[in-house]
Design brief:
Length: about 300
Amino acid sequence: MTKVAWVFPGQGSQFVGMGRDLYDSNKTARIIFEQADEALGIALSKLCFEGPEEELTQTINAQPALVTVSYACLQVAREIAGKSLPEASFLAGHSLGEYTALAVAGAFDFSTAVRLARERGRLMHEAGQLQSGSMAAIIGLDESLLAEVCQKTDTVMANINCPGQIVISGAADNIARAIEMATAAGAKRAIELQVSGAFHSPLMKPAVDGLIKYLEETEFKDPTIPVIANTTGEPLSTAAAVKTELRNQLTNPIQWQRTIEYIYNKRVPTFIEIGPGKVLTGLIRRINNEARTINLNDLESIKTLASE
């Protein structure tokens, strides 16, 4: 049987109405959404299904919402698709998506994943308020040239997503200068992102301090399936390594291209993106056009897989 990796989306993939079809049609999904509501003490499911969009998009809400919908999507797929959904040889998640991957790997349970994601979102938002930060997607500029731009503008590469697409992060005025310099250096496009802070940069240090305290109070287990770490592109196999990764992840770049290359080079040619949107599928195709990609993001896509 072909080996597969399951990958889980991060912040930015959320939309109002996500997960509604799963909730309405499947008891397992309903239980998962109810668990999330109970774990957080808020009506997260209602926010996923009805919005308002401005509230769902807030970091503190978007992060646990995406974990919930992605996790529900996987459990429904396991139930409906059966053997049509091969078990994963590797797991990975983009930034926040790493929390979903770790829950699936058994590093902590689902309720813990949701609580951690909300706490992470809260801390990241607060760090963004302490010092105004921003991020920008730089398209079509060589990585070495962009590194020079970052050095001159006191910004950092935050997401190395795929060839020709890197997200930079830093203080808001520095990002504005970096956009000008990157464009002048030959970038095809430079787009400032609608985010509440300079994520995956040293400006998130206040969030790390808060998260460490929360992580110390959380029980971790060794992952039962290797999770490829965002910060290193290498597998996490112990509880201690998981805790270190989640701490480091806030201030270090997401090595998504390296992650996908690692998995593909382990003779895993198929990637199944599980959760809202198709962002990761697009990135994976640009990293390696020989990789096979499948999306499981709603009931219809799960039923399509089940019928194959």
